[in-house]
Amino acid sequence: MLAFDSSDTPPTTEHAIRKPPHGNESYLALVWRRLRRSWTGMAGLVLVGLLLLMAVFADFFAPMDPKATDVGFAPPQVMSFHDKDGNFVFQPRVYALSDSEELDPVTFQPIVGMDYDNPRLLGFFVKGAEYKLFGLIPADRHFFGSTDGQPVHFLGTDKFGRDVLSRAIIGSRISLMIALTVVFIVTLIGTTVGMVSGYFGGTFDIWLQRFVELVLAFPQLPLYLALTSLIPVTAPTNVFLGFVIVVMSALGWAQMSREVRGKTLALARIDYVRAAMAVGATDRRIIMQHIFPNVMSHVIVAVTLAIPSVVLLESFLGFLGFAVKPPLISWGLMLQDTATYSVIGSYPWILAPVGFVLVTVFAFNALGDGLRDAVDPY
Q1: Which of helix, strand or coil describes residue 218?
Q2: Disordered: where is this region (predicted)?
Q3: Torsion over CA: 224, 186, 170, 240 (sign)
Q4: Nearest Cα to 68, choosing from 165, 140, 151?
């Protein structure tokens, strides 16, 4: 008989059965785990979150009333931690702008200088211009600004003396709203048409794809300009904005439908889809329960990559004057002030909306690249 050694005790269940790592995690948990490993994807996610937060609470983050006027084409005011004698102080400040008697030899505008005798102290959650949060709640608190409510211009002013930073923050609301609305409509129409066309196939698919090719064959830029120019100048701003969204959506859904159709053609031949057909499942159930969840990963990535394209398109059309009309504010509309080289050379700070556009494009592209790798965790 073999002696039993206490050191040879059989392993416990916890040690004997080892589950594969992350084996019980859901699909969304696996996607999140992969996305967290991508620093570009996480950077894009953080920036997108900050951009959306800024757009939703634009009035709160804007330090000034975007319609208030001051000195025209005033340079940016630099935040300083020194008083006029050069001594270090803990509370940041900016110095007021004042016109001198000298004129710019190019533009013949008064040269603007700093008034070091009147510092304006800065702080957080300060009182300023009144606004209505979400259009309902009266408020006058701003995230950052002067403690005495005096105007500050961190990015300078435009030709009418309006604060560029405040207008850029308020303009993010219109620019992002147009982009998100257009991409939502494009995704809804493109995904539906693509899945239906790829699933049913046959003559229906052939004729539907000829129509899609007809839409793709249109030269989009001339068509954008032609359609938007049909709107009367006296039309209400909401009507004009809605028409711009409809035009962009009508010309943008075709590419999405072609991509989704290709995915659907591959999915329609998989065994579980054929098994559902064999047991008599309805077409609607097969499309919604078996095909739609499997194309969603591609659609999500396509959405994050389509939003920057719409932002760039709106900025370009706004620069040409075919997108947003005053009194609305958008990044493209603000860039109309940069139409002449002399203005850019003398007042380069009016190019500040370009920085907002670049950050937005980078944020959504980085998030899309991170999601592209994360949606296939296996």
Answers
A1: coil
A2: 1-20
A3: positive
A4: 151
Q: What single string gives the DSSP state of each residue in 142-182? A: EEEEETT-----TT-B-TT--BHHHHHHHHHHHHHHHHHHH
What are the angstrom distances between the C-alpha of 289 and each of 122, 299, 350? Answer: 56, 16, 51
Give the range with max mean pLDDT: 226-230, 234-238, 270-274, 364-368.
364-368
- Element holding 130 (H helix, E strand): strand 110-133
* Domain map (residue ranges) of the chain: 76-155, 167-374
Cα Rg, the chain, nearest whole Å: 28
Structure tokens at 109: 């505008």
- The domain defined by 167-374 folds into MetI-like fold (1.10.3720)
The pTM of this model reads 0.82
Nearest to 317 by CA among 236, 217, 240, 235: 240
DSSP 15-58: HHS-PPTTTT--HHHHHHHHHHT-HHHHHHHHHHHHHHHHHHTH
Chain segment 290-333, per-residue pLDDT in tens: 888 888 888 888 898 899 999 988 888 888 777 777 788 889 88
DSSP secondary structure, 312-323, as one string? HHHHHHHHHTSS
The mean pLDDT of 229-248, rounded to a whole number, is 78
pLDDT in tens, 45-61: 999 999 999 999 999 99
